[in-house]
Design brief:
Blueprint lengths: L1 H21 L7 H7 L1 H11 L3 H11 L7 H13 L3 H12 L6 H18 L2 H13 L4 H14 L3 H15 L4 H17 L3 H14 L4 H13 L3 H14 L4 H14 L3 H14 L3 H15 L1 H14 L3 H12 L4 H20 L3 E3 L5 E2 L15 E3 L9
Helix pairs in contact: 1-2, 1-4, 3-4, 5-6, 5-7, 6-7, 7-8, 8-9, 9-10, 10-11, 11-12, 11-13, 12-13, 13-14, 14-15, 16-17, 17-18, 18-19, 19-20
The protein binds zinc ion.
Amino acid sequence: MVEFLLLLLPVAAASGWLAAKRSDKRQEAAVSEREQNPAYFKGLNYLLNEQPDKAIDVFVQMLEIDNETVETHLALGNLFRRRGEVERAIRIHQNLIARPTLDRTQRAQALLELGQDYMRAGLFDRAENLFVELLEINQHEVPALQNLRIIYQQEKDWAKCLDIIFKLEEITGEPLSTECAHYYCELAVIARKELNYTQAAQLLKKAQESDDNCVRAALVQGKVDAAQENYQAAIKSFKQVVQQDPAFVSEVLPFLIQCYIKLNQRDKLIAYLQQLYQQQKRIAVMLVLSELLQEDKGDQAAVEFVADYLHEYSSLDGVQKLIDLSRKSAKGSLADTFSILHEQISKLMEKRPAYQCKQCGLEVKTLHWQCPGCSSWNSIKPVLGLDNDNN
Ligand SMILES: [Zn+2]
């Protein structure tokens, strides 16, 4: 705070100097003018009495707004916002905008700054009005659109988000395919909840056209197909998810199993899982295969299958599965030991995150398509097991 005020002192002094410079009569008396300015000493007094807030107010008031000090006001407001003193930044920028003497460029700059203050303060309605005004006067369009996109994302107004994306792409020439696909997916999810499957499918098609590697579009499409009892199509969509990003296999397995069971095609399910397992020994696939094996060939075959996996990979899920399978036949103190192990491993498993953002590292319990930490889309992936798990 003191460093900041030391910065302001010469600014305040310069303000007095500028005011004096503009007046012929006062030109020669510039220094004495400043020295005699009671506000300057009032501010200095506040500073010396360790009342920095009041000192800042006095120094800012000393800065008369005219074409020569607009930049200083903008810089000060910006500085306050960055320091987290948003109310003060808002006051400075509102004060600037109220001046009829500002030229078009200065006013637009002040509008942008005030909009950013409102964003920082969480006053999205007010910020939106300013950014829309900037678009209407064709000034600072890119930052205005970027901020509007953040506002509409917060409000979950996905149709407006799409409009913004199209405008941004047109101005910058840079594609925003990932975001675009997710906005279509968001709209498709709403349509699916409203049982409007045709519309959902149309929106998902657009999502895939925007980003042909959009895992979410294939996942939602599978759910839409399954909801319409079109299980064959659903299986195709869920398989597409795994093909696009094998890390999502744990997300689709429960749905895939349901679809195969509905079609009475358990053999095809096993064949598909075995094929996946040969490509990569993912723990999620291993767990389902062990259950199917247990149903077909009994506990011992399943125990051997899980143990084989654990010889090669470390996995809490694998160990828990092995305990589950083994404790059924255990008796006496061995059964008690298995119970304790089972309980302890459950506690360890509860502490693990189920998903992690590849962008910022945030760990979360549920799948978010947009990271709550860094706001990136598509950056959160499922994680199953500990670090050295082959998930
Ligand atoms: Zn993140």
